[in-house]
Amino acid sequence: MRLVLERYFAFAEHQTTWRTEILAGITTFVTMAYIIFVNPAILSETGMPVGAVTIATCLCAAFGSIMMGALANLPLALAPGMGLNAYFTYTVVKGMGVHWQTALGAVFLSGILFLLLTVTGLRQQLVAAIPKELHAAVAGGIGLFIAFIGLRNSGIIVPSPATTVTLGNLHNPATALACLGILIIAILQVLRVKASMLIGVLATMAVGIAFGQVQWHPMPVHFSDLAKTAGQLDIRGAVGLKIVEIIFVFLFVDLFDNIGTLVAVTERAGLIRPDGAIPKLNRIFFADASATVAGSLLGTSTVTSYIESAAGVAAGGRTGVTAITTGILFLLALFIAPVIGAIPTFATAPALILVGALMVGCVGHITWDEPRIAIPAFLTIVTIPLTYSIATGLSLGIVTYAILELTTGRGSRKRWMLYVLAVLFLVRLIYMAV
After folding, report:
1. Core-most of 229, 249, 301, 366, by most CB within 10 Å?
2. Enclosing domain of residue 413
3. How many domains in the chain?
4. pLDDT for 386-406, tens place per residue?
5. CB 45: neighbour CB atoms within 10 A?
6. pTM of the model
7. Alpha-carbon torsion 418, 422, 427, 429, what sign?
8. How far apart (Å, rounded) are the C-alpha atoms in residues 113 and 249?
9. Is 231 left (phi over 0), alpha (psi -120 to 50) or beta?
């Protein structure tokens, strides 16, 4: 049985082992476990029960991650998306006055549209239209984005009214522990220790416990609570014209955020083919769309791929076993939620920062002496972290690339999908401005 599984997940082809894949899955889970508590905290402001959303979060993250690993054999974990849950709560429910049941109906319909786009092949064509020259730029931009998130979460970088951001208080215990974590992981990486990320997170947490910096607030979860959100979506209410805009945003943002994350993680893992194609796109998108539909039925906002998966890739994960391991841990989290809640941000932030450092190395593949490529690549790299949006950075890069192609006489009918994609991105940018 073991040999059959190793052949299915292509262990020999990816030069990996069970130990490496499982450790990578644990690493991915540790870096994204915060969603188990952050997502319910955000969605509860709509009136949704915290306990029910916690269970829904774990279940749909487990379902999506396991399906991604089993079907697509990709080390990409899924969970309710940050940003989309905020849009669900603060814009749709609290801003527009839409009931959370109707908002869940809109998420369901967006998931069905994802499936239709996947079945018809349009989603795959959109991904294939992204110039392979920009793959490295997306990966590098997301690397800076991840690092910035880690620096902010650790307190190393803080807001400043004068300079936008500035150096934080390094005397703060949590910030000092985060700096220690960076050093531990960096030393382990120099020594080529594959489990450096996981060891660094756990070691930093252990030091934090020793110095009384870890606050543990047990939060019991009752499975019966799930009935308060599962199946409560209002699809009929979501069909009205007022909700069309909401469905469009759920569809649009998830589509392009997912594309950016997918390109970045597969680029970092070395899984992109020589011609720039990503293997098994149908299965990848089917898993993503199915997870969104399942999430809406269970009671949570849009489910999407997580860029924290790059932490598992950095730890050596190359196959679906990494994602399956992460999914299983989300299931176990239902029983050990209080323990997961004890993992502080100062312990996970160093992993995010150094994963970002590893991903930025991809920009060396960019042809910097060719302005037609360098300028769109640069705009992609800098705007992803500065706008706090993968989709926005990708939008600016694609639009600029297409304009330079067309205005310098390099346009081709064979690349019609690139220009369609550029128009869609331009519409998105205009919509955001309005």
Report:
1. 301
2. 2-433
3. 1
4. 887 777 888 899 899 999 989
5. 13
6. 0.74
7. positive
8. 12
9. left
